[in-house]
Amino acid sequence: MNILMIGATGFIGKEVVKQLALEDVSLTLLVRDQSRAASLKALAPSKIALVTGDLTQPNLGLDETDKATALKCDLILHCGGPMDITLSETLAKKAFLEGSRYVMDLAKEIQEQKGLKKLIHVAGYMSPFNDEASVWEDTDVFNEVHPALIGTPPYEQMKFLSDIYMRQEAKKNHIPLAVINPPTVIGDDQTGDTAQLGGFGLFIKIIRGGSLPVIPGGKDYRLPLINKNIIAEFIVQTIFNETQEKMTYTLVSDKALDPDISDLMTTISESMHIKKPRLTVPFGLLKFVMTFGGSQLTGIPKSSLNFLTNRTFDNQLTKNDFEPELVSKLSASNVPLAIADIDFRLTYGDEFIAPYTRTSLQGATVYRLDGKGKPLVLVHGLFSDGTDLFDLGLALNKQTAREIIIPDLPGFGRSPFVKSRDSLTPYLDLIASIKKAMPEGAVFIGHSFGAALLMEASNRNYLVESDKIILLQPPLKKNVKEPYSWLSKLMLKQASDKQLAHYFNHNGLILTNVAKTDRYLKRVKASFNSPRILNTTLELNKVLKGMALTLSEHRAYDVLWGTQDKSYALPIDHEQVIKLTDGHFFPISNPLETATYISSLI
C-alpha cells in the first residue's frame, strides 16, 4: 500500500508517520519544505518519499514529476491545515475549503486512473456532520454557509464546510471516505510532549497569565482531550481496517469518563503551582462578556471558549470498529506532563534535547543517554532544570561511557509541580523511583538543592551503601548574610537583566568570564514568567533554609566545592573535598572540568 499523506510535519502527522514507519507500507509525504521533513524520512528512508507541494495551491502545488509520484498512491490521508483559531475568513477558507478542493481533485484523478482504496480526512469533534447525507449533500459550500455553522468563527466554519465538501465529492465519485473527529490533542501519554501551542496550549497560556480567574460553565462542561499517539493509533488502524459503508469516527470519550472543567482546572492549577479559581461563571454569561468587550480586555480570543462543550457525542461507531483496549484510551492520560511541557515551551521556546532521549518516571520528565555500568544520576538545584546539566552529562558520558540519567525535579523544566503536605515528599519519591529502577546501584550526583535532596534521601535510607553520592556545592552552612534573602515573587519578576547578573556575580554564584553566562541568565530570567517554576523556586528556597544538613560520619560523601561562592561556606575541613576556583553554579558554567573531577572520583 502506498499512502499519500498531507500534513505529515504537523503535530498529529509526525506521530502518524512515526507509527506507519513500522508498518509494511510506502509513504509519500507532501511537504512545503523538504528540509523540515528530513527527520521523518530518516525513520525509514527506503519506505518514505518526499514530494514538494502546498495544500492551498491548485494541483497541491506539485510539479509534473512529484504529481506523477502522488498519482501512484492508492490511499490519501489528509490531516493538513493550521491550528490557529484566530484565522481570518480569507485565510481559513484558503487553508481548509480551498485545500479540500485540491485534495479532492487529486483523489478523483487517482480514482479514475486505478481506484482509490480509501480517503481519510481528520476534521474535528465539534463538526455537526456525519454519514447522514441528507443533512449536507445540497449545501453549496463555496457560496453559502450551512445553517448548523451560522455564527461560528471562521476557523471552525471553514474547517467543517470542507468536511461537507469532501463528503459530497466522495459520494459523487464513489470514493470510500473515513472522517476522524478527534477532540483537542495534547502530548503523548508517555512524555506529554506537546509541540502544538494552539488548542490546549492556548488554554494553558490564558490560565498561566491570570486571564481566566473563573471556572467557565461548571461541572456540566468539559474540554475533551486525547493524546497524540492515541489519535495516531486510531488513524493507523483506520488505514488497515476494512472499508465500511459508514466511517465517521468521533474520538471523544464518554462524558462520564472525562473530567469536567472544574476537575481539569484543578489539575492545571496544581500542576502549574497556582491557586484554582473558586468562582464558577455560567458559560452563556461568559461568552456574552467575551463578545461585548471581555475579549479585548483580557486578550482571550472569544473563539477559544468553543473548545469547551456540554454536548454528548455519539462514539458508538468508534466502539464498534476499534478494539476495546484502544477505545479505553480515548480520554487523555498524563495530562500534568502535557501541561508542564506546554508551560516549558511558553517559557523558553523550543529547546531540543538531542542526543538525549526523554521518558517519564513518577510523573516527572527524565532525560537519558545510553551507556554501560552503574548509571550516573545528575540532580539539578534551584534556578535550573535538567537541561542545564546536559553539557555535564555529555562530558561524563564521553569520559566514562556510563549511562546518564537527568530528571527534571517536580515544578521545574518539563515536570509538573506535585502538591503535597510535606514539600519534600514528591522529590524524595522521585529519587526513590529512580533508585528502584537501578537495583544494582548508581552514582548519584547532586548540585546545590539537588545535593541537599540526596543527603536527605540518604538520611532516610532511600539510598544505600552501594549508591555512591557526590555533592556539588552542597548548601551546608549559610554565611552571615543569608543567601537568597532578596527572593520574593515581585523582586524576581521585576529584576532587570543587569540586576540579575550583578546579584549572581556579586555573590559568586556564576563568574562573568564564563561563555555560558549570558544564555544561562537569560533562562533564569525567562523562568520567572512561569508561575510553576517561580512559585516552586520560592517554596523550595524556604524548605532549604529549614533543612538541617550535615556531612554524616556514617556516610562517605565526595564533595566538589566552588571557592568563589559567597553565599555558602563549607562547615568543616572535610577530607573528601575537591576545591575549584569557581562559583556556586560551576557544574553549569564549567562542565568539562567538573566532569573530569567526577570521573576521577568514580
Supply the number of structural domains.
2
What is the architecture of the largest domain at the second tier of CATH? 3-Layer(aba) Sandwich
- pLDDT under 50 segments (min length 5)? 482-486
Strand residue content: 5-15%
Number of helices: 21
Silhouette? elongated
Gyration radius (Cα, Å) is 27 Å
The overall average pLDDT, rounded, is 89
Cα separation of the termini? 53 Å
What is the assigned CATH homologous superfamily of the largest domain? Alpha/Beta hydrolase fold, catalytic domain
Question: How would a crystallographer describe the biggest sheet?
Answer: 8 strands, mixed
CATH topology (level 3) name of the largest domain: Rossmann fold
Strand order of the largest sheet: 12-13-15-14-16-17-19-21
List keywords for this structure.
single chain, 602 residues, alpha/beta, Rossmann fold, 2 domains, 8-stranded mixed sheet, 7-stranded parallel sheet, 21 helices, 21 strands, 14% strand, elongated, FAR_NAD-bd, hydrolase activity, NAD(P)-dependent_oxidoreduct, hydrolase
Secondary-structure map:
Blueprint: E1 2-6, H1 11-20, E2 26-31, H2 38-41, E3 48-52, H3 64-71, E4 75-78, H4 89-113, E5 118-122, H5 154-172, E6 177-181, E7 184-186, H6 200-208, E8 215-216, E9 225-227, H7 228-240, E10 248-250, H8 261-272, E11 280-281, H9 283-298, H10 316-321, H11 324-327, H12 335-348, E12 357-361, E13 364-369, E14 376-379, H13 390-400, E15 404-407, H14 425-436, E16 443-447, H15 449-459, E17 468-472, E18 477-478, H16 489-494, H17 497-506, H18 517-527, H19 531-546, E19 557-562, E20 568-569, E21 577-580, H20 586-589, H21 591-601
Parallel strand pairs: 1-2, 1-4, 2-3, 4-5, 5-6, 6-10, 7-9, 8-11, 14-15, 14-16, 16-17, 17-19, 19-21
Antiparallel strand pairs: 12-13, 13-15, 18-20
